[in-house]
Amino acid sequence: MVLATFASQLANGSPVLAGVFRGVRLGQIPGQLDPFYIAMEVEADPYEAGTHTFELRMIDDDGEVLYENQIEAQFEQRPDYLSSYMYFCGQVFVEKLIPRGGVYRFDLIHQDETLAQAKLEISS
User: Fold this and answer.
1) Is 87 exposed, middle or buried (0-12, 13-18, 19+ CB in 10 A)?
2) In the chain, N or C: fewer CB atoms in 10 Å?
3) CB–CB of 66/102 below 8 Å?
4) pLDDT in tens, the chain (124 residues)
5) CB hemisphere CA count around 21 (13 angstroms)
6) Distance, CA of 54 to CA of 90 (rounded, Å)
7) Domain containing residue 89: CATH number
8) What's the domain range around 34?
9) Is 46 in a helix, a strand, or coil?
10) Residue 102: alpha-carbon gap to chain centroid
11) The whole model's pTM is what?
12) Looking at the 3D structure of the chain, how many domains does it have?
């Protein structure tokens, strides 16, 4: 997973990322995050073909959820038992105010298992 000021996908499936970052400065804290993009590629084994629902959550170091969204992905059955891939990019709007500076975390969760994490350092 990566955080970026912009993310998209070309017609041929190639990802496009611009302004990849791991930290932001807010003018004041508590403060509002500007919208940004999150992009990821998820691999599924052949036996996992089908539709899967993932949870994307942003949490603080106390475990408080500041953002949550569902992502639904379709993994195709590929020949010769090859893995299937899903590329996702979407804009994130964190509506809650960021209460304090620190390291926040995005978790990608599937069936109560955290598959990936990305950290975001926020300062003023």
Assistant:
1) middle
2) C
3) no
4) 999 999 998 988 888 999 999 999 999 999 999 999 999 999 888 888 889 999 999 999 899 999 999 999 888 887 777 888 888 899 999 999 999 999 999 999 999 999 999 999 999 9
5) 12
6) 13
7) 2.60.40.1930
8) 2-123
9) helix
10) 18
11) 0.88
12) 1
